[in-house]
Amino acid sequence: MTGEISPIACLRQLSIDDPANPKLLVHSLPIDAVIAIGRDPRCQIVVDPLRFASVSRRHAEVRPSEPNAGERPAWWICDLNSSNGTYLNGQQLRGCQLLQPGDRVSLGNDGPEYIFEYLVEFNREVAVATQQEAISPSLTPADPVTLTQLFPIVSTGRELTHKAFLVPSVVTIVFVVGLFVAVGQPLLFNRLLAGYIALVGFYFVYRLCGKRKPWWVMALSAMGTYFLLRSPVLPLFVALFREVLPGQVPTPGEPINPLMLFIRMFFGAGLMEELLKALPLGALFLIGRVLPAPWNDRVGIREPLDGILLGAASAVGFTLIETLGQYVPDMIQTTSLQLGTGWDQLRGLQVLIPRLLGATAGHMAYSGYFGYFIGLAVLKSRQSWLILLIGYLTASGLHALWNVMGSVSEILLALVGMVSYAFLAAAILKARSISPTRSQNFATRLKS
Description:
Elements: E1 9-13, E2 26-29, E3 35-38, E4 45-46, E5 60-64, E6 75-79, E7 86-88, E8 91-92, E9 96-98, E10 104-107, E11 113-118, H1 124-135, H2 147-150, H3 153-156, H4 160-163, H5 166-181, H6 186-209, H7 215-229, H8 233-244, H9 258-290, H10 295-299, H11 304-339, H12 344-357, H13 363-379, H14 384-405, H15 410-433
Parallel strand pairs: 3-4
Antiparallel strand pairs: 1-2, 1-11, 3-5, 5-6, 6-9, 7-8, 7-10, 10-11
Helix pairs in contact: 5-6, 6-11, 6-12, 7-9, 7-11, 8-9, 9-11, 9-13, 9-14, 11-12, 11-13, 13-14, 13-15, 14-15
């Protein structure tokens, strides 16, 4: 425990409404700590995000300089690669600069403004006394232990859901208990494991997007794809894309060159499956158009981030049906015929786990990327058909490349997966930067 040190310098915030107002907020500057300024609640000087939307989450820092004996303490002002820049006396700051008394620091063009001042006249005696106070133990007795220190949950309970990932932890625990209960029941075990892995992958995309959307809306997108795959719509799609169009699925052992295989996969897998997964997005978009505010934003597609989230959710439903309804049963049946029972469930798990783990760079990447273009078409309605066509063809091409490279080279397959995820990540970053609701985005440090 150290004694309290009298502040030597401060940043005095100017009043935006009345610069002559004497009641200005004063932020003292410690000589042994860095002061961060921005919209992030963890900053030492927190800027009102509603009033100063152009300020970044961590916009600038005030750093103490290394003091020399007998010299006045000094501070540096440093810009943290903010979106709108930090200005010192009207000039944009590049890197860091030493502060002088009377310097004016502005965060962006229309952000808050501060004046750097020394609170006391500095002399050698003040410096010596300050250094002694900083290093000498206080003679005052230690503060008693409080109830909230002994039981932190008493004071932090309200923050658990926002800052401590309480909901994901609860979901994980529920699935863990469910997996224990399902031991000896392979079908239930596989469904629980697949559901959990798919949720983790989607939650990763959700955190990257940073836009809050009701969970039940995203569940509707996933369930919409599920019911489409169980409905007569699927045979119609198969007849169109795999019989009328050149999208026939190759038979086992059929000799085919990579180019012809790509063409078949482009029509039979890429175009067909991406259009099918986009149908729930179209339905939600139409529903959102007839709903009043704010339900039109919560349910419908108003921007690219909406399209990415709903597209990824639709892909979750598709991946679960495809994996649990086709790939895992086929592997179990084939293994039972070749090796007998005992190995079949293990082989099934060996297919289930990588397919679900790879969904973020697979179906979620393709559908999320196409969803970006669906949302972009809503923003840029004059060129909507061109935007939709580019997104549809690109997502289908990535999908077809993945299917083709699986029979060519494992290294190329991995590269295609990396490229697919890079496309999705780039779409998310661009969607965040052009989002009309970027001021409420919880994932970005861009200006809002």
